[in-house]
Design goal:
mainly alpha; 7 helices; elongated
Length: 223
Amino acid sequence: MELDEMKLAWQALDRRLVQQQALHLQLYRDSRMDHLRRRLRPLVWGLLLQIPLGIALMLWGISFWSSHLGDVGSMISGIAMQVFGTLGVIFPARTLAMLQGIDYAAPVLDIQHRIADLRAWRVKVEAPVFAVLGSVIWIPALLMLAQYAGDRAGVNLWDHVRPGFVIWLVLSAVVSLAVVGLAYVVLRRLGLLRWLANQLAGRAVQRAEAELDAVMRFERENG
């Protein structure tokens, strides 16, 4: 009878230990998930600031080309700015939707997959698109500002364009794109593509990944 009582006591102790360990794991996980939310918060703020800027550029482009109908050069410049501004709204909105889709109560592996998708989106889609477009968008912006000056003087910029100016525009775009390509090649030759990917993903994503790695290690060691 004493042996049975001892077995029951050990079983009860084991259950309490298991419950305490589970509680400890849950408390640790909840703490880390709170840290994770805070790590991602600066990214959310940055994205929320980008959207009004994208809207402003989009409206600027629309306002410009709609007030210069029939002027092909001006319309192209305005539409280019409208497209750039529109992407400046769509891309941050897409990233915010990905962040909103993270379920912090889900298994850590699922959250890691979400963060990995976020990293891939920022590094493989968002960054290349804005690197290419951002390197040449200054050209239509410059042309739009020049045409505003022409409007005040009653002059159409494109009526006085010389072949040399068009060649300069083309060369400027080529050089700008070449600089972006050259920077990528140099970083690749130096073995810094991983560093580049981290920079493009952003510090918030890197810190979130570190938090999740810590949770995974803790669960493996104490699970």
